[in-house]
């Protein structure tokens, strides 16, 4: 659990921004963690054949499936809707000493360095640490190439979803104030008194110190919430936008597939997301549907044996059953 403590001044300095460069960075993580029937399966199927010639080893060494992402890779956007060029320029302008320090931290991070290939990753990080100015040039160039292949073709659709989310969040703020804004932001986020609490694998507490808080919706952040407090000018929280579960639907031919025709689009979309256990509130956020509507669909799928359910504290977590897996595999 990490806690962010607000002052009265911080409350008045909550703002939103989009970040193309954050989408590029977090999508590298999604490439490593995406499953054939998961949230970003439609994107992954399109991107994978186009990766020839990219330095995937460099990218996946810098952005691991879990754990620490170097702060210089995700600079706070200076405007509400920056360009990819401005984001890459911010990375290029990073202090080389700070880059070396953060890459050293990444090389020894116990969560980020899990999995096979650790020795090779540490060797590569060592090369980058030894010459951080040259490393920045190499990293910026590769992120630019990655953007053109993996994100740029889909950016108009992604940007529309992100703008939609910001509009919704501003309505929440107008209708119910800060309490309502944070109550509906993400299942891992809670707010009480003057403290924002975010469920993470580590613990920490930070005073915002009149820096305010930047909220950044990010397509490839799900299911995590990313927290940044290193910037002396602003702290940031990155969360998943509403309606994310439907992002790839229209471009992936879902309307013509047999499973949506039998179950209905909403239930087919639910089934596709439940390779991991999720609660009603998580799914409501993911698919931009009302929780009571989600609950009706979940109960129907559970009654048919397509989903299983188990209680976890106050929440009920749903997951595909073996029958659900077979249905989804047959549809694919």
Termini separation comes to 38 Å
Q: What sequence of helices (H) and strands (E) makes up the elements?
A: EHEHHHHHHHHEEEEEEHHHHEEH
Radius of gyration: 20 Å
Number of helices: 14
Instruction: Give the low-confidence spans.
Output: 250-256
The residue fraction in helices comes out at 40-55%
Number of domains: 3
Number of strands: 10
**Strand line-up across the major sheet:** 3-4-1-5
Structural class: alpha/beta
Shape: globular
Strand coverage percent: 5-15%
Question: How would a textbook summarize the main sheet?
Answer: 4 strands, mixed
Mean pLDDT value: 89
Report on the structure:
There is one protein chain. The protein has a four-stranded mixed β-sheet with strand order 3-4-1-5. Strand 9 (307-312) and strand 10 form a beta hairpin. 48% of the residues lie in helices and 13% in strands. The radius of gyration is 20 Å and the shape is globular. The chain has three domains: 2-15 and 157-242, no CATH class; 20-153, no CATH class; 253-331, Arc Repressor Mutant, subunit A (Orthogonal Bundle). It has helices at 8-11, 20-33, 41-47, 56-62, 84-92, 96-107, 118-130, 132-151, 155-183, 258-263, 265-273, 280-287, 291-303, 322-331; strands at 2-5, 14-16, 189-192, 195-198, 204-207, 213-217, 226-228, 235-239, 307-312, 315-320. The protein contains 14 helices and ten strands. Helix 2 crosses helix 8 (132-151), helix 4 (56-62) packs across helix 7 and helix 12 (280-287) packs across helix 13 (291-303). It has 332 residues and is an alpha/beta fold.
